[in-house]
TrEMBL record:
SUPFAM superfamilies: Winged helix' DNA-binding domain. Keywords: DNA-binding, Transcription, Transcription regulation. This is BlaI/MecI/CopY family transcriptional regulator. It comes from the Bacteria. Belongs to the BlaI transcriptional regulatory family. Coiled coil: none annotated. It comes from Hungatella hathewayi. One of its GO terms (biological process) is negative regulation of DNA-templated transcription. InterPro entries: BlaI_family, WH-like_DNA-bd_sf, WH_DNA-bd_sf.
Amino acid sequence: MKQDITPAEQAIMNVLWESKHWITINELIEYFEHLGKEWKRQTVNTYLTRLIEKGLVVKNGRKYIYAYTKEEYEAQKASEVLNALYGGSLKKFVAALSDSHSLKSEDIKELKEYLDQL
C-alpha cells in the first residue's frame, strides 16, 4: 500500500468507507452529482481501476468495495510515514513534534494515558 492516492481517489474511498457495502459506478456518480461534481462514467471507472491496482478496492461484477477499512488504511499509512521518516521510532516522531512545539499539554496528557494503556 505504498502508493499515495489522489484527492479524487480519496473522495471515492471515503464514499466506499461510509457506505460499508458493495456499490456500483452509477451509485458513485449519483453521490458525486449531489455534491456538484459532474464525473462521467469513464472518469469514475478510471479512478476505481487505479484503486484496484493499488490494492485498495475490490471488484465483484459491477460492484465495488474497499479492501481495507478506513482505520486499517490509516494505520498502514501512519506506519509507512513512521518508518520512512523516523526509522520506525515512535520516540523520534514524538520528539520531532515536541521540537516544533506542536504538542499541547492536553496532547501530552492524552499520549501518556494512551501509552499507559498499552
